[in-house]
Amino acid sequence: MRRRRRLERAQALAEAQAALEAGCPEREAAAVAGVARSTLRDWRSECSVGAAPAALAAFAKTPEGVEWLHALEIAAHFVITLLAGGGVRLVCRFLELSGLAQIVGASYGAQQKLNAALDVAVLRQTYETAEQARE
After folding, report:
1. Staple partner for 105: which of 59, 61, 84, 110, CB 3.0–4.6 Å?
2. What is residue 36's DSSP assignment?
């Protein structure tokens, strides 16, 4: 069983929803999305998101919402860890206090992994910029 990333899931759900709105049966909509019918049913079921408003939770399930959440997470990491010199725990705290922890993975492990990837990306960009200036 393959675990889909949040953006892949949102895109598949949007495709299935479009097929359902066009009048396709649920089984056909699931096939269009490339998932099992039971998976589609699970994804479409409303889950509790705690303190997050229902509209925000619905937006977070769309491809645009997922991309926006990723951008917000990256911005929080960039400002808190790279510009302000804080740590990953402060990013986790920000996500908790803002209510976004109900929607995104706010555990230390998840955020540390994202922060490590951001560090590598920033170092790579800095290196490439320095190499271009040297040429």
Report:
1. 110
2. -
18, 27 contact by CB (below 8 A): no
What pTM, to 2 d.p., does this model score?
0.66
CA distances from 43 to 1, 2, 4, 36 (A): 16, 15, 12, 11
Confidence grade of residue 99 (pLDDT, cut at 50, 70, 90)? confident
What tokens were used for 77? 């990491």
Integer Cα distance of 122 and 27 in angstroms: 44
Measure the CA angle with vertex 45, ends 44 and 49; round to 5°: 110
**Token pair for 95:** 């996500």
Residue from 12, 1, 39, 6 nearest 110 by CA? 6
Angle at 64 between CA 88 and CA 28, to 5 degrees: 120
